[in-house]
Amino acid sequence: MFVCNLKLNGQKLFKILFIIFFIVAAILLCIATYKIMFQNKKEEIGDEMNSLKSSELLTSNYTNVLKAVHDNLDNYIGQEISFSGYVYRVYDLQENQFVLARDMIIDSNFQTLVVGFLCECDNAKEFQDNTWIHINGTIEKGNYHGDIPVLKITKIEKIQRPNDEYVYPPDDSYVPTDKI
């Protein structure tokens, strides 16, 4: 038979519990600090975007905004945006529709995928495929194989192909806001 005799020393027990408490408190403090810093970044993005009446999409935020609008369409209806891309059409679009597209780089071998917003305007036929344009428009809810955002174009103009024509996948740090 095995007998274990355990003698507790009050001072040593207090020191051990104090050290454990100190380590747990330090970990919680680090987590809280990280969350506070990240929360401030979210608020800065939201404040910056909400302060604009019309938001300009850039290559740096293009896919983040595209993803946010598709994920939360009802929050963005009526929002005015402007951006540039090239005219891209598929066979089942109407005559007044096209996709204002960008090529998104999806891997290190420089393979791309076409991404963009479906746009509608009366003079859509005037712009040939692969023509680079800059548009201003308002986000509305449309239907193309389900509910999707559709940009009703208010201003459209031809532009030269930009130097930064490629966009990158949405990053994990982007925090969608209720307005662009």
Question: Helices and strands: which structural class?
Answer: alpha/beta
CATH architecture of the largest domain, by name, is Beta Barrel
Number of helical stretches of at least 4 residues: 3
What kind of sheet is the major sheet? 5 strands, mixed, barrel
Shape: elongated
Summarize the structure.
Helix content is 31%, strand content 31%.
Commentary on this structure:
- The chain has a five-stranded mixed barrel.
- By secondary structure, it is α/β, with parallel strands linked by helices.
- The longest helix has 41 residues, at 10-50.
- A hairpin with an 8-residue loop joins strand 2 (80-88) and strand 3 (97-105).
- It has two domains: 10-51; 55-167, OB fold (Dihydrolipoamide Acetyltransferase, E2P) (Beta Barrel).
- The chain has helices at 10-50, 62-71, 73-76; strands spanning 54-56, 80-88, 97-105, 112-120, 132-143, 147-158, 166-167.
- The model is unreliable at 41-52 (pLDDT under 50).
- The radius of gyration is 26 Å and the shape is elongated.
